Amino acid sequence: MPLCTRLDPARSCDRQVWDAIDPLLEPRSYAAGDVLWRQGDSAGRLIVLDEGRVKAVRTAADGRSLLLYVFGRDDVFGFLPFLDGEPYPASAIAIDPVRARTLDRAHLRGAISADPNVAMVLLNALGARLRQAFQRAEDQTRPHASAQVAAALVLLTPPRPPSPLLLDIPGPLHAFAEDLGLAPETFSRALTRLVAAGVVHRLGGARLQVVDLPQLRAIAAGHVQLAPKARRRSDLP
Questions:
Q1: pLDDT digit string, tens, across residues 199-217
Q2: Are residues 54 and 71 in contact, defined by beta-carbon separation less than 8 angstroms?
Q3: In the structure, what pLDDT confidence band is assigned to residue 20 with cuts at 50, 70 and 90?
Q4: What proportion of the chain, given as a percentage, has pLDDT over 90?
Q5: DSSP three-state, residue 91
Q6: Is the Cβ–Cβ distance between 180 and 140 less than 8 Å?
Q7: Alpha carbon of residue 126 to chain centroid
Q8: Is the pLDDT of residue 5 over 60?
Q9: What are the strands of the beta sheet with 200-204, ordered from one edge?
Q10: How many other CB atoms sit within 10 Å of the CB of residue 143?
């Protein structure tokens, strides 16, 4: 009998499925910089993130990196190879020290065999994730670096933004710029334009405060364009 039939009908099917899977999860820790899996790996394991952040980065054929997603607390990911049998399309790298719970291939397959609702819940989560990844890819093709950087900062924003909204850019700035397909100098100039526009404020190091989240989202979506900084006369050829 499917889990959602034999469990409490007053609770959502998704919640019941996760509650049923929870006893199968095993605790796991990762240090900042650890690679959970690489693009092309096929082993597969489901991850429930309890603490820290993990970035999904895809390497294009020409060697460019594309930051697809930043997972945060309570995110569930890593299950795509279970559903289609194909390798991971992106690498997963811990940004911070991470505490997580994991479910290996055998146990997840057993849960799916016992109840098809498990697969449906995972497919729903995957669909939402793919829509966000497509939007992220579109944002990174915009001609203005400011839009790319703004989109990356929006990606780092938690679903329920606190006040004040403080963001820590993951890893060294040059590595984050590379994840966006930008040269470090281009990333720095784009960030400076966002600061000059009053959208974000530098707090030192890799920490930023988002001052105007709606405007940041508008820039990321391409609805607002920031003019490039005027070149000084001494910079002209």
A1: 999 998 889 999 999 999 9
A2: yes
A3: low
A4: 24
A5: strand
A6: yes
A7: 13
A8: no
A9: 165-168, 207-210, 200-204
A10: 8
pLDDT value of position 165: 94
Looking at the chain, how many residues does it have? 237
CATH of 12-133, one of 3.40.50.1170, 1.10.287.130, 2.60.120.10, 3.90.1150.10: 2.60.120.10
Structure tokens at 185: 């100098």
Q: Which token pair is 53?
A: 């952040």
Amino acid (one-letter) located at 50: D
Q: What share of the chain is helix, strand, coil (3-state, %, to 5)?
A: 40, 25, 35
Fold of the domain spanning 145-235? Arc Repressor Mutant, subunit A (1.10.10)
Give the DSSP letter string of 12-46.
-HHHHHHHHHGGG-EEEEE-TT-EEE-TT----EE
- The residue with tokens 């963001």 is 167
User: How far apart, in Å, are the Cα atoms of 221 and each of 101, 130, 134, 136, 142?
Assistant: 34, 17, 13, 10, 9
**Could you give the CA distance from residue 8 to residue 11 in angstroms, rounded to a whole number?**
6
Indicate the domain borders of the chain.
12-133, 145-235
Mean pLDDT of 6-31: 67
Residue 197 CA to residue 61 CA, distance in Å, equals: 35
